[in-house]
Each structure stands twice: as C-alpha cells, then as structure tokens.
From TrEMBL:
Signal peptide: none annotated. This is 3-methyl-2-oxobutanoate hydroxymethyltransferase. The lineage of its organism: Bacteria, Pseudomonadati, Campylobacterota, Epsilonproteobacteria, Campylobacterales. Its EC number is 2.1.2.11. NCBIfam families: panB, PRK00311.1. Catalyzes the reversible reaction in which hydroxymethyl group from 5,10-methylenetetrahydrofolate is transferred onto alpha-ketoisovalerate to form ketopantoate.
C-alpha cells in the first residue's frame, strides 16, 4: 500500500507557467534511476543538477562536471522516472556563446529525454537564452547565487544585500523572462528581494535559500534527506537523517555477518 497521496499530474511547460499564483511547485534533484523513481510521482519537476559533481562525485564545486556526465545521469533519471518533467543542468563552459550553447543543448535533447535545460546567468546570458528558446529549447533560468560563478566571485555569497544588487537581480529576472525562459531558480537571495523578484515576472520563481515567498522550492535530495554530512546550509531542512540510518543499518549488517546470524535458514537456498 502506498503511503503517498496520489494527486500526481505530469507536468509540461504550459502547466508550469500556469502554476504561477495557483500552485506552489516542488522541485528536487536526482542523479540516478533508483531515487528518481521514488520522487517521480511526488515532485513536480526533477532537476539533474550539476550539484551531482559535489554530492555524487565528491568534488569541491560544480565546475568540473562535463556534458557527458550530465547526459549519463539524465538518462538514468529519465529511465527511472519516465513520467517526470526532467531538467538537465548545463554544466560550466557548455554555453559560453550562442552557437556552443545551442549545439550542446541539442546534444542533450538528442541523447536524452530531458524536457528542459537549466542555464546559470541573468541579463549577461539573456541573448544566449533567447537563441535557445527561439530554437525550441525549453530553458529554466538560474539567478542570484550561481554556483558556477564560485571561483570568479571568490566564494558563495548571499545576494540582494544592497539596493544596487536588488536592482540587478530584478533586472536579471526580467531579462531571463523576456528571453523566453519558462521558470527561474533564484538561489541564495534575501527573502525580501526574492519577493520583489517573484512579483516582477510572470513565470514561476523556484527558490532555494530565498525564503517562502517564491512560487516553489528546489532542494538537493542528498541535503534534504540528510546524507550530506560535511555541512548543512541554513536554508536546508533535514526531512530524514539518511546518513545515520544508513550507517546504523550497515553496522547491523556487519554485526549479523560477524555473529553468523545473517543469512538465516530462511535466507538460504
Ligand atoms: O545543481 C543543482 O542542484 C542546482 C540546484 C541547487 C538549484 O542548481
């Protein structure tokens, strides 16, 4: 018996756009078929985030993720969750100009069943996003704290603390919307500014570390399920103590092996 209330509705671009002011959107990352299947009929969208480079590959930041890795993981997610609206994060260096961006997004569309791609950048990337959307690529924007800018910015910095930055962020959101994006992730932004951004555009704003004023939320699965032990950002809520549960279970397994209580008679041929 399922413990989940099944009001699942398969999403598409129109439904996502229409959810503005109607329904809060729940977005979660996934990198493999196993977890994607668990999230499929609960989340509105699954993001194959380049955060996989950190939580899955153990790297320090997202910058060394490659297009082939994103394609590999997107295929795993789409296979595990065929009904999900899956978004592929375009990794660092794959959308440095309009032609490169279109070539690489077409590669994602050709090799996977992703419904959309995500691009980090505001007004500075508007011409690239416009080129993609006019060539039939569905684009989710990503503004505010942008992890792919970590080395050039000298760290992860909460945005929107000055009047000037607030104006920049609102201009970014408007530019990305005008370029044809169907939704925008707003990360690491003061909640009062996130509210103004949400009110400034007609497409859903999906927040992460931006308060509860946005049109939806996104979280990295391994953060919200408590598997990532090194560090817990202020904006993450742990819905499970995954790391403790796994370690307890594996420890129990080891004890059972050592005292020969596993496998039991019922577990043998
Ligand atoms: O890579 C990622 O998982 C993301 C989310 C944090 C929005 O971009």
């Amino acid at each position: 018996m399922s413990i989940i209330k099944n009001d699942f509705e398969k999403m598409n671009i129109t439904k996502i756009r229409n959810s503005k002011n109607n329904k809060k959107l729940t977005v979660i990352t996934a990198y493999d078929a196993l977890f994607a299947k668990l999230f499929e009929e609960i989340a509105d969208m699954i993001l194959v985030g380049d955060s996989l480079n950190m939580s899955f590959a153990g790297r320090e930041d997202t910058l060394s993720a490659t297009l082939n890795q994103m394609i590999y993981h997107t295929n795993a997610v789409c296979t595990g969750a065929p009904k999900a609206f899956v978004i592929t994060d375009m990794p660092f260096g794959t959308y440095i100009n309009k032609d490169e961006a279109l070539k690489n997004c077409i590669e994602v569309y050709r090799q996977t069943k992703a419904a959309a791609v995500k691009i980090e950048g505001g007004a500075d990337k508007a011409d690239i996003i416009k080129h993609l959307t006019t060539n039939s690529i569905a684009v989710m924007g990503h503004i505010g704290l942008m992890p792919q800018y970590v080395r050039s910015e000298g760290g992860y910095k909460v945005r929107g603390k000055t009047h000037q930055d607030e104006k920049q962020l609102i201009d970014d959101a408007i530019a990305v919307e005008k370029a044809g994006a169907f939704a925008i992730v707003v990360e690491g932004v003061m909640s009062n500014v996130a509210k103004k951004i949400t009110e400034a555009v007609n497409i859903p704003i999906i927040g992460i570390g931006a308060g509860n004023v946005t049109d939806g939320q996104v979280l990295v699965w391994s953060d919200m399920l408590g598997f990532f032990e090194e560090f817990k950002p202020k904006f993450v809520r742990h819905y499970l103590n995954g790391a403790d549960l796994v370690k307890e279970a594996v420890n129990q397994y080891r004890n059972d092996v050592q005292d020969s209580s596993f496998p039991s008679a019922e577990e043998e041929y």
